[in-house]
Amino acid sequence: KILAEAAALKQLASDYMHPEVGVKTTDPTLFGRNYFNRYSAPETEDERAEILAEAAALKKSAVAYMHPEVGVCSEDATLFGRNYFERASAPDVESMEEAEERAKILAEAAALKQLASDYMHPEVGVKTTDPTLFGRNYFNRYFAPSLDAVENTPESSPEDAESHVLSSFNTLAATVKGANLPSTKNSKLSSLDKNIGTTKKSASTVDLFGLTDEVH
């Protein structure tokens, strides 16, 4: 009895775990009624077909969205579409030349912005990924002139500048005084270039240093 119950439980577990095997019987009087095909069962075939049709439409829509390069294929000659960009009420679209000019202007503006950023922020440095690019330091090049350190000298005051000018003037006066220039003679010439004699020296007299007594 115990073994028979164990065999029945095993058969029941196998039938439950493997419904695809089906029920096998040799008694012609045994039969079963299908739950889904019973007389009072709701109609499910139409709903199933509708669900499958919706799933196929969704799949087609997803494929058309993911692959726009395939294009729209239709066999109905009465089907047509209107271009959205070429409709009568469409806004004006720039031409190819205008688009290229606009792109060029934007590229130049971006380059100027980058140049201004590099000029205003030298601490950022130059970044490049090309290993063949390099730069040479202008001040550390081989033939650069040697630069001597400039000593910091204190600024001179106005009194020092004035004393320097006075000393220069005194030095110039002493040099002229010790030059031993020859004697000068004040003379006036007439319109005939003749000597009209010695006259009294005036403020408008011109002194001709180093010339002979007669003027040719």
How would you describe this structure to a colleague?
The chain has 216 residues and is mainly alpha-helical. The chain contains four helices and no strands. The chain has helices at 2-17, 45-66, 96-120, 158-177. The radius of gyration is 58 Å and the shape is elongated. It starts with a helix and ends in a 39-residue tail after the last helix. The model is unreliable at 184-196 and 212-216 (pLDDT under 50).
Mean pLDDT: 76
Strand content: under 5%
Q: Helical proportion?
A: 25-40%
Structural class: mainly alpha
Cα distance spanning the termini = 170 Å
Tell me the total number of β-strands. Answer: 0
| Number of separate helices | 4
Q: What oligomeric state is this?
A: single chain
- Rg measurement, Å: 58 Å
